[in-house]
Amino acid sequence: KKPIFVVVENPPQYVNGKEALYQFLGANIKYPAEAQKKGIQGTVYVTFVVGKDGAVNNARIARGVDPSLDKEALRVVNQLPKWKPGKQRGKAVNVSYTVPINFVLQ
Prior knowledge:
By secondary structure, the protein is α+β, with helices and mostly antiparallel strands. It is 26% helix and 33% strand. Strands 1, 2, 3, 4 and 5 form a 5-stranded mixed β-sheet that branches. The protein is elongated. 25% of the residues are buried.
């Protein structure tokens, strides 16, 4: 099993930066109707591994809000395109990364 780093010299980067990451998430999240009806909102934290190849793997809920929101957050994180992988001593490595996804009712 390959080690998974939490802190590296060069952390993984979403292709066009953090702003683009949040734009992708915002554009692809579909607020679950059931959660909307119940007025459920909050921030779901999803942890995943950015592999040496830049692919997103092993997405899981680090801190959830409600099963419907958690499921939707995971669905979208699993659709993320490849990242620029993190590097340690100049070599691409597997890096754990956590992203907060806000569900806010308008």
